[in-house]
Amino acid sequence: MTAVDFLLWVRGPGLTIASIIFVLGMTLKFFEIFMLGRKKNLAELRGSGVKEGFKTIVTRSGHVDTYSTRHTKFTHIAGWVFHIGMFIAIFLLAPHIEIFKTFLGFGWPALPTPIVDLATVISMITLLAILFHRITNPVLKYLSVGQDYVVWALTFLPLLTGYMAYHHLFFRYEWVLGVHILSVCLLLVFFPFTKLTHAFTLFISRWYNGMMAGEKGVQQ
Amino acid sequence: MSEATLERGLKALKEQIDTPIALFFSSCTHCGMCATACLFYTETENPAYTPINKVEPMRRLWEQEYTLIGRIKKAIGMSKPITDEELEEWQEYCYNACSLCGRCTMVCPVGNDITYMIRKMREGMAAAGHAPEGLIGASKRAVKIGSPMGVKLPALQAQARHAEKDLGMEIPFDVEGAEYMMLMSSMEIMNYPEYMEAVAKIFRQAGKTWTISSEAFEATNSGIQIGSSDIARELVSRVVTAAEKLKVKTVISPECGHAYTAIRWEGPNLIGRKFPFHVKHILEVLDEFRAEGLLKTEGFEEARMTFHDPCQLVRRGGVVEQPRNLLNMVSKDFVEMKDHGIMNWCCGAGGGVSANEDAAELKMQAFKRKKSQLDELNVDTLVTACANCRIQIEEGLEENEMDIPVVGLTEMLAEHLVEDNKTEG
Fold first, then answer.
1. Which of B15, B30, B336 should we substitute to test contact with A (largest number of A Cβ atoms within 10 Å)?
2. B19 and B69 both lie in a single domain
3. Number of structural domains, chain B?
4. In CATH, what number is assigned to the domain containing residue B281?
5. Alpha carbon distances (Å) from A125 to A3, A119, A199, B31, B276
6. Any CB–CB contact under 8 A between B381 and chain A?
7. Which domain holds residue B320?
8. Contact A216/B113, CB-based, under 8 Å?
9. Does B209 map to a domain?
10. Which residue, of B131, B153, B174, is where some domain finishes?
11. B339 contact residues in A (CB cutoff 8 A)
């Protein structure tokens, strides 16, 4: 298989298969979650909680606890920085928008490439710091299981290979670009079956958290 | 309880898993932020006490039973089964080192209600026979005698007679059609008899009818602490039956945190129907009296004071402003702790910790958090509204040689009542 064959396969059938697995997997995931159901709350409620639920989706992005704010600064800031950097790299790079356009039928304005490049570098550095934190912090070390490291790698690889492809580093461009797309395929395939699902479920979790508190009249 | 086995435990735990639980497990990224919200972690730095770790066996059960990948892994022998030994280890994490205080629920960045998860985890633990002895004993006494501390009706009647002598008024028992039915906690009956007198005085002034049921006066509920819905349901049913028999409009939960959660929030869900009466915490009732101008006080406390929010009242119950409104009636030097209201730190002994001898040492370690909060304030008096918090704080202050009196808010208000405004009670 030549570099060009490989590239053509991953960007064609490879990416399609991965996208299908991603969509079906996420559908299954939501089915698994919502088929369980939840009992109706029969207590006399102070409010429907719906508004509090939506409010919590936003407010939970910050901290209400002064102690936790002081002691989780790194996790908090690094989390924000890496997520924003990754968002920029995925959604605001011109070639990526072109791909979304072929899938979705519409596009959106891109950021200048040097800015996306900077965001990618910042995101990678932050991810390395996050990994270091995970293996050195006693709580994170205790909590971490194999999947946490696999998911870290699945997130890091597309950034790294994307950066290498853009700067034409080390290997032939077609190979690097092919590996970049392959790493995205892997991310998509593993996504529905790992903690990566938090990217979707966290909003609903926050909603339930705020809603259940709101029913009791607890404002977050 | 029927015989506890691992099989029963897993079955009970499986039944607890619902949509929020599946969402919460799907959202956790092992970021570890919940640790810093938990006083059992902050005061010991034991990573096993990280709140989300307390439900790890439930996470695996969820994965193995309710996800495709988990089922495949289980079928080909790639998943680790949950064992008795593991649950025995987890007994320490989810009972000794958790007061169900709810702080972790407020800080989790993905929004997991970890307290909701641990409460459910305990259902499996109790059914599997891995609940602490102290809680098993308390639950048995609650079901058999009617009180986790073994307090019987004659003890309450003796206290009522004493109050009648002091106040020159009758303590109403079993009065049909009274507006309010008052519940008590065993702790109040045994340790804080002034509570009953305070309530009697306030209701006399407010001119409201109230009663105590001789059939169901105990408000505490060991069932929700140990994690047995069957026991919790039985205890709630007794109160509901009595309230319906006496046709009261409102049942008053006493100065106790979990009793409020049990009857106010879990109660109707346990018995599977809405209550035909309201349930209010005593502070909610007193604040209503205040708003209606029925609570008249005179004079102010000299001491500089602060208020310890019982977790089940604020974070888990929504009673936040009422104690502050009431305190400001009788105090001009009321200061808040740095983290207060919905983010207040637990006393260290809620959620069944106080009834669990295995946690005796740990709860005093956990108290250090409250100690640091108090050290920052330099107050003369601490006011609270939960007999269980009160006992723990008194013990903690004693152990740390801190001379701060702890008082219940209801009794402090009663001491300031305008006496010349007597109404027939």
1. B30
2. yes
3. 3
4. 3.40.50
5. 29, 10, 21, 18, 60
6. no
7. 305-415
8. no
9. yes
10. B131
11. 65-67
- On average, the pLDDT of chain A sits at 92
Question: ipTM value of the model?
Answer: 0.92
Q: Does B372 touch chain A (CB under 8 A)?
A: no
Residue B423 has a pLDDT of 45
Provide, as residue numbers in chain A, all residues whose Cβ is less than 8 Å from the Cβ of B20: 38, 205, 208, 212
Same domain membership, residue B235 and residue B122: no
Residue B423 located in a structural domain: no
d(CA A169, nearest CA chain B) in Å = 32
Question: Domain for residue B313, yes or no?
Answer: yes
Of B112, B131, B150, the residue at which a domain comes to its end is: B131
Same domain, B160 and B81: no
Judge whether residue B330 has pLDDT over 80: yes
Residue B420's pLDDT band (cuts 50, 70, 90): low
pLDDT tens, position by position, B200-245? 999 999 999 999 999 999 999 999 999 999 999 999 999 999 999 9
CATH code, domain with B110: 1.10.1060
